[in-house]
Amino acid sequence: MTREQLFQLIQKKKSFLCVGLDSDINKIPQHLLEKDDPVFEFNKAIIDATIDYTVAYKPNLAFYESRGSEGLISLEKTIAYLNERKDEVFTIADAKRGDIGNTSAQYAKAFLETYGFDSITVAPYMGEDSVSPFLSLENKWVILLVLTSNKGAFDFQLIENKESGKRLFEEVLKTSQKWGNADNMMYVVGATKAEMLSDIRNIIPNHFLLVPGVGAQGGSLEEVAKYGLNKQCGLLVNSSRGIIFKSHGKDFTEVAKAEAKKLQEQMAEVLTNNNLL
Amino acid sequence: MTREQLFQLIQKKKSFLCVGLDSDINKIPQHLLEKDDPVFEFNKAIIDATIDYTVAYKPNLAFYESRGSEGLISLEKTIAYLNERKDEVFTIADAKRGDIGNTSAQYAKAFLETYGFDSITVAPYMGEDSVSPFLSLENKWVILLVLTSNKGAFDFQLIENKESGKRLFEEVLKTSQKWGNADNMMYVVGATKAEMLSDIRNIIPNHFLLVPGVGAQGGSLEEVAKYGLNKQCGLLVNSSRGIIFKSHGKDFTEVAKAEAKKLQEQMAEVLTNNNLL
What we know:
Two copies of one chain form a homodimer.
Chain A: H1 3-13, E1 17-21, H2 38-50, E2 56-59, H3 61-65, H4 68-83, E3 90-97, H5 101-114, E4 119-122, H6 128-131, E5 141-147, H7 153-156, H8 168-176, E6 185-189, H9 194-203, E7 208-211, H10 221-228, E8 235-239, H11 241-244, H12 252-273
Helix pairs in contact in A: 2-4, 2-12, 9-10
């Protein structure tokens, strides 16, 4: 999916919602456990219930890997199901991978070819040659970690460079500009740092940003939109637990649908107020 | 395995060799492809041929993930085979994982429990709460990326902190001291930065270091030993291609054995010269 196609999808659904499929088998509704593949059945039901309000789906690999190869089978079925609906969903492998060149190339192959995700989250610590292998595939995206929403973000991401005075996350933003462009790179920016979003937008006015969460993880949708929107929306805002685990009972799909719809309606208002529809 | 047990294993085998099982199915000897699980058969043969000279095995997850769930099945069989020999091998999941707290906990579960590796490589960008979940399991190790051996290491790892004057990799070393100790943390230090090893040893005299490669990746065994050894050896030096892909023919096990033995003999000399045997 190209940037233009993603923006058109956002306009069509009046939404920039990303649903995080952090599908922990210990948290899904218990009645699904009798199924052959409970996690896949769960994901399928969530996708069906929310797809009208959602432009992106983001499984986090950890929840699948914790079950070994069986978990990866659930993931394979999930991405295959999403790929039957390729034109109306943008898919993100939340893997936060990164390694030396030839190894990153294998990760790129795994997620962008073998599984067929549109994009993959990547960690920046090892620099250019650990990231660029992910950028060599047509119509595929890297979503680079920049400013994360957790407490540990304060350990290193705000360290000021003696030479430039810039903070580490700004150096990551600046340096990574040379590796790709706004048509194959996006950035992860934690919503709790909403005021830093304007600093970030000064450096990258055109790139899409993946915002891991609003509400529970801090930072409101209004704030994120205020500082983060651009002329093609430029935002994907994620919600996981607030949608997929809002109910643990047999009504989990209705509840998920209602929660997704609520967020989509807020987003529609934001898009309208900013003349993006 | 505890630090003391690892040192005893090093003394017993007169070796600090780690064999990297970067078992790319496109590079293993072709005659294995007729087997049900060619990669597992390859790994098993390599392990059998090299185990007398080797104290650690390090599969890199990318090469298994690139084959989807099938690749993870090969990995599961490999770690199970290694775990039948638990007392004479230290196992490393080279995964370079890291995510917010509860997600890192799932990765810890995946690799340290479900698969049963002794240790896992972890990326530091997201700070303490992305790393500490891996440290909550008894007798298990985190191997934290500090200074990597690739060109991209120069992008961020050497940035000097305006406040302290320290370089980023030194900040990672210093800050991570508070998260664990020399009995549950090790560090990845690229061999090409051998002269920086003494800077590193000044900060962490007692921790084990995983050195990704010598020779092909730059930096000699003698240099690494000179600057990196400590009173319990404190080094695990990895070799992948130079051992496992030295031959692509039917003699691949004999050749792997010979290469591992060569390195072990060099290491035995180093250990003797430093009064560690």
